[in-house]
Amino acid sequence: MVSNFYLDLRSPGRQRITEKLVEQSIDLCRSRGIYAEREGNGLLVRVDLRTCYLNPGQAEMFNVAIGYTRSVHGNHL
After folding, report:
1. pTM of the model
2. Which of 1, 14, 53, 65 is the most exposed place for a label (fewest CB within 10 A)?
3. For residue 34, how many other CB atoms are within 10 A of its CB?
4. What is the layout of strands, in order, in the sheet containing 35-39?
5. Cα–Cα–Cα angle for 3, 71, 59, nearest 5°?
6. How many domains are contained in the chain?
7. With contact defined as beta carbons under 8 Å apart, do 2 and 47 qualify?
8. How far is it, in rounded angstroms, from Cα 48 to Cα 35?
């Protein structure tokens, strides 16, 4: 199962995204076998559950996030 996401790196009150934040976020994704690249104020993230490294808790949270996204935005990502 491959899922694609846009992850907005802005937080309330944050005016700009620093290069350090982008690099740390991409490095964190890569350490888990998740592809990420910068797009605007966030990241394009591709998660392939066959090749990424998630512990059981992370996998459960990923499934919760998928379920929430589908319930709010429909069954298309």
Report:
1. 0.66
2. 1
3. 20
4. 2-8, 42-48, 35-39
5. 45
6. 1
7. yes
8. 9
How confident is the model over 20-69, as pLDDT tens digits? 989 999 998 898 888 999 999 889 999 887 787 777 788 788 778 777 77
The DSSP result for 1-67, as a single string, is -EEEEEEE---TT-----HHHHHHHHHHHHHTT-EEEEETTEEEEEEETTT----HHHHHHHHHHHH
Would you state the pLDDT for residue 35? Answer: 92
Distance, in Å, from the CA atom of 18 to the CA atom of 47, rounded to the nearest integer, reads 24
Range of the domain at 67: 2-73
Of 14, 6, 17, the closest CA to residue 43 belongs to 6
